From TrEMBL:
Pfam family, one: Alpha_L_fucos
Signal sequence annotation: 1-31
Protein name: alpha-L-fucosidase
Organism: Pinibacter soli
Transmembrane regions: none
Keyword hit for Oxidoreductase: no
Amino acid sequence: MTGIDQYKKNKRSLKSILLAGSLLISGLLSAQQPKVLQHGAHRVGKRTDVEMATWRGYGMGQFIHWGVYSLFGGELNGNYYNGAAEWIRSWKDMPNGVYDSAYKQFNPSSFDATQWAKMAKQMGVRYVTFTTKHHDGFCLWPSKYTDYTIANSPCKKDIVKQVVDAYTKEGIDVYLYFSIMDWHNPDWRYDLKTKEDSVAFERFKLFTKKQLTELLQQYPQTKGLWFDGTWDNSWKKSGAFTDTLEQYLKTLHPGLIIGSRFRADEFGNRHVDATGVLMGDYEQGWERKIPKTYADVHGNDWDCVMTIPENGWGYQKKWLGHWKTTNEILEMTAQCVSLGGNFVLNFGPKPDGTFRPEEVEIAKEAGEWMKINNAAIYNCEYAGWEKQDWGYYTKKTNENKVYMIVFNVPVSRSLKVKPSKNTLVDKAYLLTAPGKTLSLEKLDYDASFIQLPSAQYKQPFVIVLETKEGGEKSDEQKAKT
Ligand code: FHN
């Protein structure tokens, strides 16, 4: 290489270093100066009011999907729909008009909202989310703004009112599910590509506002709205409207809780705005999945909604494949609460208004467990302790109590307990035997073993750890090898 070549090479590398440096600096600067959004999140961090504190403490909830789709139960002419049964209207084999006139057969002769609410109460759920209108657009309340409602079915009863009243009477808080996407309304658009689309969608937005206002005015006990069907471009292009509407609904109904599925910002971002802040009172993206670690929830409130079969929210005549056992459901509940979230289990009542026997059984078994162990689920939060293989820690909010919800007993019966920094375990005992202290065998770093009494552990169980502040942490003693 000549001296000139060497000089050019050095110049080139200097240039690329300078370019990389300036890109880095401008990147850092723009990261420090978030975009100013007009319709982004209006709060950073969790809500601190009493309504949200109640929501946070629920632990376990129930979801109910019920509507015209239940009549089909995922079946059309002997074929089973290979997808969620409540989507059957969109099945290519569904003849035009068949679904939309099926409501004329919706007559749930055995529907008894009080029985539903009592089953939920016995199961131990503390809130319910009920489908007032799913994607098919059929309203389970007699809405003034469309004819496609329960009032025009042979049922005629205001189902939403009955559910709201019955659950409220049992002390279970009610949240109303509402699909923005509405396959029945001619003004609904997936996207806004023409002037005509925009004009129709303006009408649709007004219709939506009126229906939501109607729901909140007719069912004032409602604690929150659970939105769905907000993923299409038409809604994403309506960021300003979603923002104004959310604020309007909250003014109408102070304390109202709305998750992150509702809003879009002015750039069409959903859930999280262009600056990375959650839009909504809690993260609503955990559908049929649970975060693995606390870091995954980004400091937000959240809940997980889960089906009993693998997929399918509305009634399915046949549950194909695996469906969850009560112990799996309890484990998911424990996992969610241990990561600071609520767990919500879905039920899909039959067209006659009764639940399938599997659902009744799960509600009963889960309730029996919750009756004994609910202290580890209600008003509990992330404990901040290192997860161990035996199960999940939950911490009672504002108390010095940590619960171990044990699902896997090792053959040694030794359960490792490793508290968070500056926390010591004062006392350990089984939730069912508070008078009998379990001894803690100290390990040579800041952990202990609890040796379980010899017994057959057939069900998940709870150990209470009374804690106190203190204890300097030492690093795990590693042998020098
Ligand atoms: O498409 C719906 C589905 O049918 C069901 O209602 C679930 C419940 O979370 N939400 C939608 C998919 O995200």
